[in-house]
């Protein structure tokens, strides 16, 4: 077996029709501090990554729009997603945010993910629509 340090460790195909959900974002994973991919039992695909601007996530079922939490939002105990998630997605987000907080803020308390929309717009993730 040969190795190539420049080759991706992981790649996934977009199973969502581009005419319906748009084109999945292309992420330069090596430049990110933390990255994760998830696919649930229904084939719904999620990507999450952290960089200097915060934590970003996108999902094919959400049109591959990119949602961003700022670093200040991540320092809060409760992260307000405002999305309807199944148990698997909720567990995945909790694992991701817990790992990110543990790496960036080792003395912080565990993250609580509130699926209800935040009353304060500053607590909601910023949405960048995907250009279809």
What features would you highlight for this structure?
single chain; 132 residues; alpha+beta; five-stranded antiparallel β-sheet; two-stranded parallel ribbon; 24% strand; globular
Tell me what the structure shows.
The protein is of the alpha+beta class and 132 residues long. The chain has one domain. 20% of the residues lie in helices and 24% in strands. It is built from 3 helices and 7 strands. The protein has a 5-stranded antiparallel sheet with strand order 1-2-3-4-7. Strands 5-6 form a two-stranded parallel ribbon. The longest helix has 18 residues, at 87-104.
The dominant shape is globular
- Proportion of β residues? 15-25%
Overall mean pLDDT stands at 75
Q: What's the story with the biggest beta sheet?
A: 5 strands, antiparallel
Total number of β-strand segments?
7
